[in-house]
Specification:
The complex is a heterodimer of chains A (about 300) and B (about 375). With about 300 residues, chain A is mainly α. Chain A contains eleven helices and four strands, in the order H-H-H-H-E-E-E-H-H-H-H-E-H-H-H. In chain A, helix 1 (about 5-35) packs parallel to helix 5 (about 150-175), helix 1 packs across helix 6 and helix 2 packs antiparallel against helix 3 (about 65-95). Chain A is globular, with a radius of gyration of 19 Å. Chain B has about 375 residues and is mainly alpha-helical. Chain B is built from 16 helices and four strands. Chain B has helices at about 10-30, 35-55, 55-65, 70-85, 90-115, 125-140, 145-170, 170-190, 225-245, 250-260, 260-265, 270-295, 305-320, 325-340, 340-345, 350-360; strands at about 200, 205-210, 210, 300. In chain B, a hairpin with a 2-residue loop joins strand 2 and strand 3 (about 210). In chain B, helix 5 (about 90-115) packs antiparallel against helix 12 (about 270-295). Classes of the chains: A mainly alpha (about 300), B mainly alpha (about 375). The interface between A and B is large, with 42 and 44 residues.
C-alpha cells in the first residue's frame, strides 16, 4: 500500500520544498531590486554544487579527514565563490542593460546560464557525466513510532529553513536590508536618500547567488550526485515557485517552493511513470498562473486598461 | 517617377555586392581545409566592412526597391548558379536546405518576438510538433503537401494551448511558460511509445505529384529537391513576413510590442494581435519543422531540445531582432560555421552563448538592424543604421 511510504514521501517533499524555496527566494530578491528575472540562477546553483565538490576534493587531497570541518569549509567556499559570480554577473551583464528592453536582460541571463552550463560540461574534468557528491552528513536515521527520518534530511530541512530565516532577518533588521527594501520600493527615491544603488544591487545579487550555492550543496548532499544539466530544471522550478508565490515576496517564494514540492510528491504518488510528476506539477503551475497571473501573494497590478 | 533617380553606379555596385556574396557563400560551403576557410572568412569580413563604408548595401536596397523584378530575377539566377556548382555535394546541399529551413522557422520567431514582442523559447518544440505530425501522417500515406500543412496547423493548435497563460501573464512570465513547455515537450516525446520514445520515428521519403525526393535530380544529389522545395517555402514565408511587416498588421504588432497600455488606449485589442502573431509564427515554424523532418528521414526527441530553441533565438538576435533579412546570414553563420570548423563543434553552445552576450551588450540591434518604418514613398529609401 502506498501509505507505507508516506513518511518517505513526506520527508522527500519537505527536502525538495526547502531546496526550491531557497532558489525561489533568490528570484524574488533580484526581481525586488531590479525588476528583472535572472534565468542563470539555476546554473549558479549547479555551479555551486560543483564548487563544493572541487573544494572537498582539494581538502581531501590536502589530507583533511574531519568531516564537519570539511563540510563547513566546502559550504563557505561554494557560497562565497557563487556570491562573487553573482555580483560579477550583475556588474558586467545585468546593470549595463538596465536601460535596454526587459527581453534583452532575460536573454543575456539565459545565455549566461547556458555559458556556465557548457563551461562546467567542457572544462570540469569529465564534467559531462554525473559526479558522485561526498556524503558529509551522518547517514543514521531516527524512528518516531512508524516514521523513519534520516538525519541528513532533517539537517538539510532545518539548515535550509535557517538560511532563509537568516536572510529574512537580514532584510528586516540591518542597514543593508533597509537599503534593499528601499530600492525595491522606489529605486529613484532611494538613490536621492543617499543609498549607493550599484553597491546594494551587487550585494543583493551576491546574497541571492550565495543562497543558490547553498541550495546546490544541499541538493548534492541529498542526492549524493551533481550533474551539469540539473541547473536548468531547478532554475525553472525555482522561478515557477517564485512566480506562483508572487514575485517580490519572500514568504510567497517559500510557499511556492513547498507547493511545487507538494505537487511533485502528489504526482509521484498518483502516476506510475516517474517523469510524469514534473509534467503534472508544471501543468498545475501553468493553470494557477493563468488564474492568478501575479501570484498567490502579491499586490494587484494597477496599469491594466 | 519611380525609376528617375536610379544611377548606373548604384546598379553596378548592387550587382557586384550580390555577386561577391554569392562567391563568399560558395567558397565558404566548399572550403575543404580550415586554413582556406579562415582565408574565406577574413576576405568576407574585409569585403563586408568595405561595402558597408562605401554604402553598397544601401545601394542594394535602393536597387531592390526600385527594380524588384530585376532584383529577384537576379537572386534566382545566382541561386541556380550556386546549385549547379554544388550539385554533387551532398553535405553542402544539406547545409543549404538546413539553413533555409531554420531561417524559415526564424521568420516565424521574428513575427512573434520582433514584431509582437512575444517571447517564445519553445521554437524547437514547435519544429518538433511539425516534424512529428509529418512523420505520423506520412507513415499513413497522407500526401506530403497536406501533411506539411497539417504540421503547421498542429503547431498552431498546440501553441494555442499556451495562449491563455501567455495572455494572462506578462513579459518574463510568458517566457517561463514557453520554457516549461519546451522542457515538458521533450519529456513527453521520450515517454510516448506511439511516437517512438527516445529512439524516434522514421519517415518515408517525400513524393510530390510523382516527383520522388529520394532520387537524384538532374544528375546531382537528391538533396537538390529538398533545397528547391525549402527555398520556395522560404521565399513564400519571407514574402508573407515582409508583407505583414509593411501592412497594418505589422503596425498593430509594433504598437502592441512597444506599449501595451497606450495601444489599448487607442482601442487596439492586444489579446487578438498577440494570438494572431503567435499563431502565424507557430504555423511557419511547424511547416519548416515538417520539411526538415522529411529531409532528415528520421527524427528523435534529441533533435528538438531546449538548446535548439536557444539556437533559434540566437539566430534571431544575431540577425537583428525584427529584421527577417538579417536572419539569413545569422542562420548561415550559426549553422554552418560549427560544421566547418570541427574543432569548435564541441564548444559550439558555449561560443554561441558568449557571442549572443557580446551582441546584446555591444550591438543590441544585431548584424543588420531593422530599418525604420517608411510610411510614404516620398520619404525615400529606408534608413540603415541610426
Amino acid at each position: 500500500m502506498i501509505l507505507d511510504f508516506l513518511d518517505q514521501y513526506l520527508v522527500n517533499g519537505l527536502v525538495l520544498g526547502v531546496i526550491y524555496a531557497m532558489v525561489a527566494v533568490g528570484f524574488t530578491l533580484f526581481f525586488g531590486v531590479l525588476n528583472i528575472i535572472k534565468f542563470s540562477h539555476g546554473d549558479v546553483l549547479m555551479a555551486g554544487g560543483f564548487a563544493a565538490l572541487l573544494a572537498h576534493q582539494t581538502l581531501t587531497s590536502l589530507g583533511s579527514e574531519l568531516t564537519i570541518f570539511n563540510l563547513i569549509v566546502t559550504i563557505i567556499f561554494a557560497v562565497l565563490s557563487m556570491g562573487l559570480l553573482g555580483a560579477l554577473a550583475a556588474r558586467f551583464l545585468v546593470l549595463p542593460l538596465k536601460a535596454a528592453p526587459p527581453l534583452n536582460t532575460l536573454l543575456i541571463t539565459l545565455m549566461l546560464g547556458l555559458a556556465i552550463r557548457e563551461a562546467v560540461r567542457l572544462f570540469y574534468p569529465n564534467g559531462s557525466n554525473p559526479k558522485p557528491f561526498p556524503r558529509l552528513l551522518p547517514d543514521t536515521s531516527t524512528t518516531l513510532q512508524t516514521f523513519q527520518i534520516r538525519t541528513d534530511s532533517l539537517i538539510i530541512i532545518f539548515g535550509g529553513l535557517g538560511a532563509i530565516l537568516f536572510l529574512h532577518l537580514l532584510i528586516k533588521n540591518t542597514r543593508l536590508g533597509l537599503a534593499i527594501r528601499a530600492i525595491a520600493q522606489d529605486s529613484e527615491t532611494a538613490r536621492l536618500m543617499g543609498i549607493n544603488f550599484r553597491k546594494i544591487v551587487l550585494g543583493t545579487f551576491a546574497l541571492g547567488s550565495g543562497l543558490a550555492a547553498l541550495a546546490g550543496v544541499a541538493n548534492g548532499l541529498y542526492y549524493n550526485e551533481v550533474n551539469f544539466s540539473m541547473g536548468l530544471f531547478l532554475g525553472v522550478v525555482g522561478f515557477s515557485s517564485a512566480v506562483v508565490g508572487g514575485l517580490g515576496s519572500i514568504l510567497g517564494a517559500i510557499i511556492g517552493g513547498f507547493l511545487f514540492a507538494l505537487l511533485q510528491t502528489l504526482g509521484a504518488i498518483w502516476f506510475t511513470v516517474p517523469a510524469y510528476k514534473d509534467v503534472f506539477a508544471f501543468i498545475i503551475i501553468i493553470v494557477i498562473m493563468a488564474c492568478r497571473p501575479t501570484g498567490l501573494l502579491s499586490e494587484s497590478s494597477s496599469d491594466r486598461v | 517617377m519611380m525609376h528617375s533617380n536610379l544611377k548606373i553606379s548604384t546598379i553596378l555596385t548592387a550587382v557586384l555586392t550580390m555577386g561577391a556574396m554569392a562567391v563568399f557563400f560558395i567558397s565558404f560551403l566548399l572550403a575543404e581545409t580550415e586554413i582556406s576557410l579562415l582565408i574565406t572568412v577574413a576576405l568576407g569580413i574585409g569585403f563586408f566592412i568595405f561595402a558597408k563604408n562605401q554604402s553598397y548595401f544601401e545601394n542594394m536596397i535602393i536597387f531592390s526597391n526600385q527594380r524588384p523584378v530585376f532584383f529577384h530575377g537576379l537572386i534566382i539566377i545566382i541561386i541556380s548558379l550556386i546549385l549547379s556548382i554544388c550539385k554533387h555535394e551532398h553535405f553542402a546541399l544539406f547545409m543549404i536546405a538546413s539553413v533555409t529551413l531554420y531561417a524559415t522557422a526564424c521568420f516565424g520567431l521574428t513575427l512573434q518576438l520582433g514584431y509582437a514582442g512575444l517571447t517564445n523559447f519553445a521554437g524547437a518544440a514547435f519544429l518538433g510538433i511539425g516534424g512529428y505530425t509529418v512523420a505520423i501522417l506520412a507513415n499513413n500515406n497522407v500526401p506530403i503537401i497536406l501533411s506539411v500543412l497539417f504540421g503547421g496547423i498542429t503547431a498552431s493548435l498546440i501553441g494555442s494551448l499556451l495562449i491563455l497563460p501567455i495572455l494572462r501573464t506578462r513579459g518574463h512570465y510568458a517566457a517561463l511558460v514557453t520554457i516549461a513547455f519546451s522542457l515538458l515537450f521533450k519529456t513527453f516525446l521520450e515517454l510516448n511509445e506511439f511516437l517512438g520514445g527516445p529512439q524516434g520515428i522514421k519517415i518515408p521519403p517525400m513524393n510530390l505529384f510523382g516527383w520522388s525526393f529520394s532520387e537524384p535530380v538532374l544528375g546531382g544529389s537528391f538533396y537538390i529537391s529538398y533545397v528547391i522545395l525549402s527555398l520556395i517555402v522560404m521565399g513564400v514565408v519571407l514574402g508573407i513576413t515582409r508583407l505583414v511587416e509593411k501592412s497594418w498588421l505589422g503596425l498593430h504588432f509594433d504598437s502592441v510590442r512597444i506599449d501595451e497600455v497606450a495601444s489599448s488606449c487607442f482601442g487596439i485589442n492586444i489579446a487578438f494581435w498577440k494570438i494572431t502573431a503567435f499563431t502565424i509564427g507557430n504555423f511557419f515554424i511547424g511547416i519548416s519543422g515538417g520539411i526538415y523532418a522529411n529531409m532528415l528521414g528520421h527524427i528523435a526527441p534529441t533533435n528538438f531540445t531546449f538548446g535548439d530553441s536557444l539556437i533559434l533565438i540566437s539566430i534571431v538576435i544575431l540577425g537583428g531582432i525584427g529584421n527577417p533579412i538579417g536572419v539569413l546570414p545569422a542562420a548561415f553563420l550559426i549553422l554552418v560555421l560549427p560544421e566547418k570548423l570541427q574543432f569548435i563543434q564541441e564548444y559550439r553552445l558555449l561560443l554561441f552563448s558568449i557571442l549572443v552576450i557580446l551582441v546584446l551588450i555591444y550591438r543590441p540591434d544585431g548584424l543588420l538592424n531593422r530599418p525604420l518604418r517608411k510610411f510614404y514613398k516620398e520619404w525615400g529609401p529606408p534608413f540603415i543604421g541610426k
